[in-house]
Amino acid sequence: MKFKQIVDLSLPLNNDLPIFPGDPEPNMRSATTIKKDGYNTSFLDIGSHTGTHVDAPYHFRDEGETIDRLPLDNFMGEGVIIPATHKKGGEPVTMDDAAPYFDKLGPGKVALFHTGWTKYLGEERYFNHPYVDIEVIAKMLDLGVRTFFIDALNIDQPNGGEFPAHEAITVVNGIIGENFTNFDQITFENPLIIALPLKISNGDGSPVRAIAIKLY
Length: 216
Fold this sequence. Notes:
- The structure is a single chain.
- The protein has about 220 residues and is mainly beta.
- The chain has one domain (about 5-20, about 45-215): Putative cyclase (Glucose Oxidase, domain 1), CATH 3.50.30.50.
- The protein contains 4 helices and 12 strands.
- Strands 4-10-9-7-5-11-12 form a 7-stranded mixed β-barrel.
């Protein structure tokens, strides 16, 4: 198999990453050095939802599947971009926004909500992001979609008070991905999206290295 183009959809993993309020602060630091020890290694003290990551159903449901027990094909599939760069902070992606793309969606497809919000990375504005209306999520679930990625901090409202999208997706053991980036660089049709998690025992989520691939 040959790849014609690969687009990196992940934020760099570092101590400056914005995190959801209350999540563990990243603290990555040197453990050994070549000068002192003959080799470089690092401590990676991060939360399971640091940076570009996926949520397992267990994140919101004790009975939900954990990250290590989910089939890997849940984290990959043909991506369908839902343009939402016209949305302001705190505004929802509505049925009117998403309806033109419903005919492209179905089982095995990955819904990509493109807000463009990573342009505000490092600013307070990043925390006041667009989100996806629960009616849109419900419709896509009815169409058979089980994997939902967004290039913002949270697929639900920025106030963090309610999580209707998380609850609706995780109840059917679906996958949520947040803090993605570079959706604007997916300029080709039928991108293959891959966002594999670490195999964390009984994990509620995991950072990922996500990519979009254009096949020959």
